[in-house]
Design brief:
Layout: H1 10-21, E1 25-29, E2 35-36, H2 37-53, E3 61-65, H3 70-81, E4 85-88, H4 95-105, E5 109-112, E6 130-133, E7 138-141, E8 166-171, E9 181-185, H5 186-199, E10 207-210, H6 217-230, E11 233-236, H7 243-253, E12 257-260, H8 262-278, H9 281-287, H10 290-307, E13 314-317, H11 324-332, E14 337-342, E15 349-352, E16 371-375, E17 384-389, E18 396-397, H12 401-407, E19 414-422, E20 428-433, E21 438-439, E22 445-446, H13 448-455, E23 461-469, E24 472-479, H14 481-487, H15 499-524, E25 533-536
Parallel strand pairs: 1-11, 3-4, 3-5, 5-6, 10-11, 10-12, 12-13, 13-14, 24-25
Antiparallel strand pairs: 1-2, 6-7, 8-9, 9-18, 14-15, 16-17, 17-19, 19-20, 21-22, 23-24
Helix pairs in contact: 1-6, 2-3, 5-6
Length: 555
């Protein structure tokens, strides 16, 4: 097909998929029969007809607050095919955040899953007139209660959607507090998905297993729109992706493609793989010898691929920086991982490589037809803020022209707020967030993410956060108390002993671990990155949808 005929809109892309892969599987819950693209097409038309009867017109905002499911995709495409604007809302947002988003976006209707109905209880709006249960497209509330969803209905109008039309407003979970509504066009998203196909080609034989929320731009573009372009099938879980749910699901689906965040693989490595070597005295010694460690890791990698269903060819990791030790394991294990880099504002992908071309500690080069540059680089280190330009850069923040001007230059460069460098092969290396960077006493740049990566390698540590308090570097550390108690056999104490005595012994051990941790970290970092104080974080840190810690709550 001549490239000049391509239209970067959802309806055009979907019709192409229908023409090529109409009889192929499109969406399914794990363990259930998939719907074909042909079936999905008919359902989209009936939902458009339903939205028409409920007064939804091109340009209107329609929210989706739902767990992942085939009907999420159908609702998403129905809204955008008729020229309305979809507002995907993260399921883990609080009722207050959800109310703010519905108000700010001016959403006229909402698709909501039954398990999340409590999140909008008590929400009152003059604008939002229609609430639809996403599982079966029945009414929760409507001014037109006589209208019923008809699976055989067809739209009354024909809709023309342009590339520059607004497709979606995605409100960032953000680690900096206030959520912003990122305006993405049909072209922003479809262009990005097409360029994802350049990095990793897919086809109708591929199977995606979806574990991240569809309302996050990472899963939205690369886990929903990209599979559509290749005629691939996406499988969804009916329950949260805990190991007891995920392992049998992977055995059943045998996914070829998965998109995840670093924390998922970091938990597997530190909680499952490393203890098998570390808890055996002989293996622990052998694991420290590089060539033997590589042999052990290769064997562990073969088992890991089997656990993931045995057919995995692309395991995408994005949304945050991957721990260096874990990445070294993945390389030595020959596990088909790939790291990408992007932001909601860039729909999201800016840089990436497939498993065959991944570069250690790098996100890979800029994706095709995207320009990346380091703005005002440091003369000695080459570090500076990453700026991006290309067809995937957002229109701006909804109703926020001043905030838009802060990040978009008049000539179209988007200021990412991330610090990075390039190597001689144009591979990008992320140093950390500009806002997170700490300036030392003598003007040195300190990247807390790099120190945290070292802390998180230490035994018993689950996660950490490095902050500056009164000019000193302080590490907030959340540790695995169960593992600590098991190690020191504190649970075997005579249960008749007083609870206070047991608590005191645990506290003593925790203090010992934190002191050891401080010595360990300070032996690994340069002088100005030394930790002056380690503080126990008693409960897990609050996180965003991609499991990044919400730093603004702790600094």
């Amino acid at each position: 097909m001549d490239n000049t005929e391509i239209r970067l809109t959802f309806p055009w892309m979907f019709n192409e998929t229908l023409r090529k892969f109409g009889n192929c599987n499109a969406y399914a819950f794990v363990g259930e029969a998939p719907k074909t693209y042909e079936t999905v097409s008919k359902e989209i038309l009936s939902v458009i007809a339903f939205l028409e009867k409920n007064g939804i017109c091109p340009g209107d905002k329609v929210a989706i607050l739902s767990l992942n499911m085939p009907n999420w995709a159908i609702a998403y495409f129905s809204i955008t095919f008729m020229g309305a604007v979809v507002v995907p809302v993260l399921p883990d947002f609080s009722p207050t955040e959800i109310a703010n988003i519905l108000d700010h976006s001016g959403s006229k209707a909402i698709f909501i899953s039954s398990s999340l109905l409590s999140r909008i209880e008590g929400f009152k709006s003059q604008v939002l007139k229609t609430a639809i249960l996403i599982e079966d497209f029945s009414f929760i509330k409507s001014e037109k209660s006589s209208v019923k969803f008809d699976t055989f209905a067809l739209p009354e109008k024909k809709y023309t959607v342009e590339e520059e039309d607004l497709a979606s407003i995605i409100y960032t979970s953000g680690t900096t507090g206030r959520s912003k509504g990122v305006m993405l066009t049909h072209k922003n998203i479809t262009f990005n998905a097409m360029k994802g196909m350049v990095i990793q080609p897919i086809d109708e034989t591929d199977r995606f297993l979806s574990v991240l929320p569809l309302s996050h731009t990472y899963e939205n573009t690369l886990g929903l729109v990209l599979p559509l372009l290749g005629g691939s099938c996406v499988y969804y879980l009916r329950k949260p992706p805990t190991p007891t749910v995920l392992i049998p699901a992977m055995a059943e689906v045998k996914p070829t493609m998965m998109l995840t965040v670093p924390l998922i693989m970091e938990k597997i490595y530190f909680n499952k793989i490393l203890p098998t070597f570390r808890d055996n005295m002989i293996l622990n010694v052998l694991y420290k010898i590089p060539f033997i460690r590589k042999m052990f890791n290769a064997a562990a990698g073969r088992k890991l691929v089997t656990t993931f269903g045995g057919n995995l060819k692309f395991f995408g990791i994005g949304g945050a920086k991957l721990n260096k030790t874990v990445e070294r394991f993945l390389r030595e294990a020959k596990f088909p991982y790939a790291v990408g880099y992007g932001l909601t504002e860039t729909a999201p992908l800016l840089a990436g490589a497939n498993p065959q071309k991944s570069v250690f500690e790098s996100t890979g080069p800029a994706i095709e037809n995207i320009e990346l540059m380091i703005h005002n680089p440091d003369k000695s280190t080459g570090e500076g803020e990453i700026w991006a330009k290309g067809p995937n850069v957002m229109k701006g923040y909804y109703k926020e022209p001043d905030m838009t001007k802060e990040v978009l230059t008049p000539d179209g460069w988007f200021k990412t707020g991330d610090l990075g460098t390039f190597d001689r092969n144009n591979n990008l290396y992320i140093k950390g967030r500009l806002k997170n960077m700490i300036v030392g006493a003598s003007g040195e740049n300190i990247y807390p993410e790099e120190i945290e990566s070292i802390i998180n390698n230490f035994r018993f540590v689950v996660e950490s956060l490095v902050v500056q308090q009164k000019g000193k570097l302080v590490a907030l550390v959340h540790i695995n108390m169960e593992e600590l108690e098991k190690k020191y056999q504190l649970l075997k104490l005579d249960m008749t002993r007083q609870k206070q005595d047991m608590t005191r012994q645990v506290e003593v051990k925790v203090d010992e671990v934190l002191n050891e941790l401080q010595l360990y970290v300070n032996s690994q970092v340069n002088k100005f990155s030394q930790i002056q104080k380690v503080v126990l974080q008693p409960v897990p840190f609050q996180k965003t949808a991609t499991l990044k810690i919400k730093r603004f709550l702790y600094t």
